Amino acid sequence: MNIPIYQVDAFASKVFEGNPAAVCPLDNWLDDEILQNIASENNLSETAFIVEENHELHIRWFTPDGEVRFCGHATLASAHTFFKHLGYSENAISFNSQSGVLTVVNLDDYYRMDFPADSLEEIDLPEIIKVALNIEDSPCFSGKDDFLVVLESEEQLIKLSPDFRMLKEADCRGVIVTAKSDEYDFVSRCFYPSYGIDEDPVTGSAHTTLTPYWSFRLNKKQLKAKQLSKRGGIVECIDKGERIELIGSAVTFMKGEVMI
What we know:
The chain is an alpha+beta fold. The protein has helices spanning 32-42, 72-85, 127-133, 154-159, 164-167, 204-218; strands at residues 2-10, 19-26, 46-53, 56-62, 67-68, 92-97, 100-106, 111-116, 121-123, 140-142, 146-150, 174-180, 186-192, 197-200, 222-227, 233-240, 243-248, 250-259. The protein has two domains: 2-116 and 247-259, Diaminopimelate Epimerase, Chain A, domain 1, CATH 3.10.310; 121-241, Diaminopimelate Epimerase, Chain A, domain 1.
């Protein structure tokens, strides 16, 4: 069995930036064990699998260690693959997912994504996260999947050196840490050790959590953000209430075949 595979750098204007994702269009769904093995072999933060059923595209995402219900950057990478390599001629593409319908509009030099906004509840900072991040008490919020921790400064965020083994035991998918920025509206770093990703390069889903928080705090609907990973990436964010629009670019790094 040969499966086409594309590796795309999402939230990037050139290769070796942003967040790499693998995209595998399938004729039909394979066993979950095979999908997980392919994602583990790719060893990227996400591998997206897409199947067309009843004239609709359905998408699933796997990290090296498990399936997730929502991934932004691999959805961007998937849309880029369909627009640039698979002859998709419409200017917008929609994927059905565990998180509902996700739409990406092709604007030639960049893409505009329409994703569901996260809902946040303020909570006490869990002790395990406080110790793992080596920080004092900070505002903390619980979203659908992740915890959001707000620091006092960008400098403090840059200097974080998390204990990933401890962070892996936190009762959440991952931990998003953020701060206000002088150059951007806000900056962030995202940690997902429980899914085999100590630090994610650029996390689209995290910005559906970050945008409602910073939109309210800064009283702005349009925001510019940067994720401060080693590769880094810039995300334009628009708060539209129950939906969040993210704007970013993508470039293809590689295409080939998975041979099973």
